[in-house]
Amino acid sequence: MLRWCLMFIYGGCCGVLVASGVFTVLLAIGLTPRFAGKTGTADNILCYENSIILGTVLGAIGSVTDKKYVILAGLVGQILLLMIGFFIGCFVGCLALAIAEMLDSIPIFSRRIGFRHGLGIVVVFVALGKLAGSLAYFLLDLGSM
Predict the structure, then answer these.
(1) Regarding predicted confidence, which is higher, 9 or 70?
(2) How far is residue 99's CA from residue 17's CA, in Å, rounded to a whole number?
(3) DSSP per-residue codes, the chain
(4) CB 36 within 8 A of CB 10
(5) Residue 102 reports pLDDT greater than 70
(6) How many CB atoms within 10 Å of residue 75?
(7) How many percent of the chain have pLDDT more than 90?
(8) 77 pLDDT exceeds 80?
């Protein structure tokens, strides 16, 4: 019983760390204020923040629970699955665009710190590292560890 309690506490602490990383990324790229500014709903910023927190928590719970308990059968399940896929796609698309906007700051930052030559090589090696990590994750089945 003590082992399960310690595992629960450890898992909760790791979940809090991951969630704080997600919130930090979203705050760093300014996604939430940008949504509020573009849609003219700055008075509902608390709703945006609560939705991000709820989505992150439900996503974390859904990623660690046993999938056999999530039964999406019939027309209601298909509609729910369609809505979930739509919202996840919107979020990932907006996140990708926000990160792409942040990439515009890399040349400015490199000029400020005096990094004049080799920026293209650095970007290529970052991309190759990301590719190698993704291939190792999927081909070596590191996700099941």
Answers:
(1) 9
(2) 21
(3) -HHHHHHHHHHHHHHHHHHHHHHHHHHHHTHHHHHHHHHT-GGGHHHHHHHHHHHHHHHHHHHHS-GGG----HHHHHHHHHHHHHHHHHHHHHHHHHHHHHHTHHHHHHHHTT--S-HHHHHHHHHHHHHHHHHHHHHTTGGG-
(4) no
(5) no
(6) 7
(7) 0
(8) no
